[in-house]
Specification:
Elements: E1 5-15, E2 26-35, E3 42-53, E4 56-64, E5 72-84, E6 90-98, E7 107-112, H1 120-131, H2 136-145
Antiparallel strand pairs: 1-2, 2-3, 3-4, 4-5, 5-6, 6-7
């Protein structure tokens, strides 16, 4: 999905749960990215993620905001963790899988809270674990489709 983008960043902010019989968790979801080479400025896509089940933050439905309100997609949190890097800082990471839509192919993202993206050690460890999964479609997706997203610091501001 990000082959023609660089400096992809996703910001999640908690929202009030849905009201009623099913108070499912919700998060505000803002994706910002630049075209490779930084031409054209920062682009963004915003939406609201709603958990499929109360108390289970692993399966989500994204729905776009504003003119994208008619679009939705399904994604799942496959894993997350944190590790202390050699410089003593802590890196938090997560892996998400998303279903194909009319605009994107099925894919996996390894996200990190580091501006530079996942550390080499974290990326290698997570990729090895994904390749070893018994869920063959995920392992095959990693083997065929996963490529690092380009990072070119400093990021442009929105």
């Amino acid at each position: 999905m990000w082959h023609s983008a660089q400096n992809v960043r996703i910001t999640y902010k908690p929202l009030e749960p849905l009201k009623g019989d099913s108070p499912r968790e919700r998060i505000d979801d803002k994706v910002e990215y630049e075209s490779i080479g930084g031409k054209g400025g920062v682009k963004s896509v915003s939406g609201i993620d709603t958990a499929e089940t109360v108390g289970d933050g692993s399966i989500w439905t994204w729905r776009g905001k504003r003119w994208l309100v008619l679009l939705s997609s399904h994604w799942e949190l496959l894993g997350w963790g944190e590790r202390t890097l050699a410089d003593g800082t802590t890196e938090r990471w997560m892996v998400s899988w998303f279903a194909a839509t009319a605009f994107t192919k099925e894919g996996l993202d390894i996200l990190s809270d580091r501006r530079e993206g996942p550390s080499k050690e974290t990326a290698e460890e997570v990729l090895a674990a994904l390749k070893g999964l018994e869920a063959r479609p995920v392992a095959e997706l990693v083997a065929k489709e996963m490529v690092p997203v380009a990072i070119s610091l400093p990021w442009k501001d929105t």
